Backbone:
């Protein structure tokens, strides 16, 4: 399909100069755009863009051969890149939601068999086909909400058979969904009840049985560990990441969600693509991330839903770090994949400016899932994943109107949805 978007009020997050992998520090305020613009899409990629008065004559002369959309009053953004989700799960956990309202903590719910262990039990009882069907509903939902690329983790299996089941579902989603999908093996998400007295035995199971099978079937792009007190220690994390890297899986880390866990230094040690959550951070962790290839990734939905402390995003940006934002879509701590709302939380709760949250959910989050060369900005040759808003005044309005449905049309791989 060949598509021509005309009279765009603002074409946001363009890249027509020297490509960058991400934006950091003060550069996160840099948001290139074109007012009164056009965008040309063909063969699934972006072919060209610019000001309306500069549009090539051949595009206007042959409009009958293209699908033309008049975007008067509307904005066009690159699709969101959601670099941290757990959306392959069985069933919901609304009763735990009620328990939280009554005052129970995340740790208390987990200790009585709720939380991740609850999801693991449900998943064990769910067939691979049913798991795929449930997840495809969520995939279609986040697609309508503007997401064009998503990272999906395992972690609700906690056994060789069920972890592989999840990863096979993700592999099928890659083939049958229009989204760009990256997969992450997170066998180290929680310690199963039968290993509570000897967690190192479960770590051995991950290293000796799970990782080789995951690698042999090419089921994961990345490997992740929930490095946290009561879950996996720094020493456990070290062992698991080293084993995963031997099989070509680059690390991504759950770090500092509930405490100063030590996850940031071990993530940097192994050149993790991202360290995620970061609700607890001190100056040492911030300094540790400077001049590295590791993307600090904050998950506002989880902090909002669990009433956790807020990651010191302003301090990180002021220190010169980049920041990505992701949804953490999962049944227990962030049951939403609405990246527009994530942007709004970034502004309202973390005092990020609109330019910063747009960078954090596009180019920076694309980097955090290894897609910065193909996604995250509107650039010639990049995948044509964009969305068109309803008529709005400007890009600042998008995170401002936090509860409004502002997306009118989504385009994925050059196809209108």
Residues:
């Amino acid at each position: 399909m060949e598509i021509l978007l005309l009279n765009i009020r603002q074409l946001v997050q363009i890249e027509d100069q020297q490509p960058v992998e991400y934006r950091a520090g003060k550069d996160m305020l840099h948001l290139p755009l074109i007012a009164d613009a056009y965008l040309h899409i063909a063969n699934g990629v972006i072919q060209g863009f610019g000001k309306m008065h500069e549009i090539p004559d051949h595009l206007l002369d042959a409009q009958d051969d293209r699908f033309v959309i008049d975007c008067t009053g509307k904005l066009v953004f690159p699709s969101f890149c959601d670099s941290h989700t757990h959306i392959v799960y069985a069933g919901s956990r609304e009763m735990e939601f009620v328990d939280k309202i009554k005052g129970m903590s995340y740790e208390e719910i987990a200790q009585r068999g709720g939380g991740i262990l609850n999801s693991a039990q449900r998943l064990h009882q769910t067939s691979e086909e049913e798991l795929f069907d449930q997840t495809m509903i969520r995939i279609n939902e986040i697609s309508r909400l503007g997401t064009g690329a998503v990272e999906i983790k395992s972690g609700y299996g906690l056994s060789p058979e069920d972890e592989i089941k999840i990863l096979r579902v993700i592999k099928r989603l890659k083939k049958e969904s229009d989204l760009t999908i990256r997969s992450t093996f997170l066998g180290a998400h929680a310690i199963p009840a039968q290993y509570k007295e000897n967690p190192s035995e479960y770590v051995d199971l991950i290293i000796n049985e799970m990782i080789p099978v995951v690698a042999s079937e090419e089921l994961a792009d990345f490997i992740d560990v929930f490095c946290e007190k009561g879950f996996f220690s720094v020493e456990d994390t070290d062992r698991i990441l080293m084993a995963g890297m031997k099989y070509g899986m680059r690390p991504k880390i759950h770090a500092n969600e509930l405490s100063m866990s030590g996850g940031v230094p071990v993530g940097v040690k192994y050149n993790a693509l991202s360290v995620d959550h970061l609700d607890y951070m001190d100056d040492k962790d911030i300094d540790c991330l400077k001049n590295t290839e590791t993307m600090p990734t904050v998950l506002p939905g989880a902090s909002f839903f669990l009433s956790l402390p807020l990651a010191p995003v302003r301090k990180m940006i002021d220190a010169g770090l980049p920041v990505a934002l992701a949804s953490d879509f999962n049944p227990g701590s962030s049951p939403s994949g609405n990246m527009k709302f994530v942007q709004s939380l970034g502004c309202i709760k973390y005092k990020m400016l609109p330019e910063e949250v747009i960078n954090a959910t596009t180019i920076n989050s694309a980097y955090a899932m290894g897609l910065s060369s193909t996604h995250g900005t509107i650039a010639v040759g990049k995948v044509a994943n964009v969305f068109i808003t309803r008529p709005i005044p400007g890009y600042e309005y998008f995170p401002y109107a936090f509860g409004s449905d502002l997306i009118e049309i989504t385009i994925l791989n050059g196809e209108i949805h």
